[in-house]
């Protein structure tokens, strides 16, 4: 018997989208089908299997026990097919969509991405930035750089940079107060983004009790790059990841007065869908990133 007669492939494709998006309407929008057509394909599959796959409620669906068992296998099956198609094509004209946090994109990617392009000249890179965790369902990103603990269901995660933090400021600003000799001296200056939880953690580790950070404006600038910009301009002291700003330190624009750094367990990770781990362009980018951060995963 032909495979097309044994396996209702179109219905399975519709089921995969509906199970992933938990919506017949959104599945139809993704596949270019009407909601009625989606419902029809799901019904065909349920008749083929002999069991319901979804519980249908007003404006809401959920997977049945049979649907829960089937969904991951179908997703894996389509991923294998996609990998098979990708494995027989070359890299010519490929586009890799990379989504990143703004600070990592500005302080690292834009400075070193050229070496990836030299190694893979036929893979173009589209870079976007986002402050939220990329769920790979609402965007078309192939890979993402994210900040966290590396525990995202369905995603393969590789630690690429430790997110240590320490106070940093302009050397000229330090001179204006006669130098920074002990951690408490930092409180003589304006504290940038004083509401950042990193400050309390660092002062506690440095042995400074009751730094009274509430007397400073609890600004939230959104990215470390903005905090660093204010520090370079002599507007105060910022709590930053020193690894991000090595060039600024070497050029004399920023100064890290104390070697003490802290880490709250959250770091930078390269992530992508586990089911797409063998796609050539994703594998190529992953191999390049890990070669740039050889010790980060340890």
TrEMBL record:
> Which Pfam families does this entry report, sorted A to Z?
HTH_1 (PF00126), LysR_substrate (PF03466)
Q: Which domain of life is it from?
A: Bacteria
User: Keywords, A to Z?
Assistant: DNA-binding, Transcription, Transcription regulation
**Residues covered by the HTH lysR-type domain:** 7-64
Q: Could you say which protein family the record assigns here?
A: Belongs to the LysR transcriptional regulatory family.
Q: What is this protein called?
A: LysR family glycine cleavage system transcriptional activator
